[in-house]
Amino acid sequence: MNTTTTRLRGGWRAVVRRKTESWPTAAPAVERRLGATEEPAWVRRLLIGTALVFLTLFLFVPLATVFHEALKKGWAVYLAAIVEPDALSAVKLTLLAAVISVPLNLVFGIAAAWCIAKFDFRGKNLLLTLIDLPFSVSPVIAGLIYVLVFGMQGWFGEWLRDHDLKIIFAVPGIVLATVFVTFPFVARELIPLMQAQGVEQEEAARVLGAGGWQIFRRVTLPNVKWALLYGVILCNARAMGEFGAVSVVSGHIRGETNTMPLHIEILYNEYQFAAAFAVASLLAALALVTLVLKYAVEQRVKATMKGAAGEH
């Protein structure tokens, strides 16, 4: 099945390549337009310099300040703040929320992207709009909605109380809030790529007798794997750094329902600046690692989308 599908895909690409090579090219005209509208060197330097100044003031300096303040009193104080029981509990809860919410969003993102990119149906635009809802709704409002629905005085409060279940001010509420604010990321990375690739390869595999799972595993997934990883990275970064929605549903119980951002806020409000910046440096380090991974995967995604556009 794998060899036959690969052969068919290669033949299909060759046909498309022969057709596109015969098309007239507009490259000279494009080059002339670019040459005619090229900005003077001083304008480019001014724009680049302005961008560097903003990056320095609003990104590099704050990040450097976090690490400087975290280590200002020495490594002993820094390590003591990190291994403190409440800090370790916050780290564990943050990782737990990410470990649960990211796979859930992975499943949702793949299903939603497949449905939107491969099929036409009524309500498709509505589904796209709903996927973007967490981008437009304040996380605090999302947290309040969960309190209204799952709180002890909420719609399901009596039923939860009767069954000895607790969602708000407990780990399940934190996971729910994290899932809500992060679920657009995977879907939004996959949808454009799947739409650009079309359905020809899946249809060819179906003609050859492949089932739905085989088509996904052997045809679709290899084509979208880098976009999928890119969405997972963004989803994980947002999950670990979420503050607003988690703050509403957590209850701020030290050692139990405080994530890393909440723990940092408590330490800072208590004037424990060294400890606050020590824990903040962990989040900053995660952000830097995420940035590096994001850049590497982004290059792969661009190459994949360019290849998909070249085949159509």
Automatic annotation (TrEMBL):
Residues that span the membrane, as ranges: 46-67, 87-114, 126-147, 167-187, 227-253, 273-297
Domain ABC transmembrane type-1: 91-294
Database matches in InterPro entries: CysW_permease (IPR011866), MetI-like (IPR000515), MetI-like_sf (IPR035906), Sulph_transpt2 (IPR005667)
PROSITE patterns: ABC_TM1
One GO molecular-function entry: ABC-type sulfate transporter activity
N-terminal signal peptide: none
GO CC, alphabetical: plasma membrane
Main subcellular localisation: membrane
Keywords: Cell inner membrane, Cell membrane, Membrane, Sulfate transport, Transmembrane, Transmembrane helix, Transport
Compartments where found: Cell inner membrane
Domain of life: Bacteria
Keyword Transport: yes
Membrane-protein topology: Multi-pass membrane protein
Described function: Part of the ABC transporter complex CysAWTP (TC 3.A.1.6.1) involved in sulfate/thiosulfate import. Probably responsible for the translocation of the substrate across the membrane.
Subunit structure: The complex is composed of two ATP-binding proteins (CysA), two transmembrane proteins (CysT and CysW) and a solute-binding protein (CysP).
The protein's name: Sulfate transport system permease protein CysW
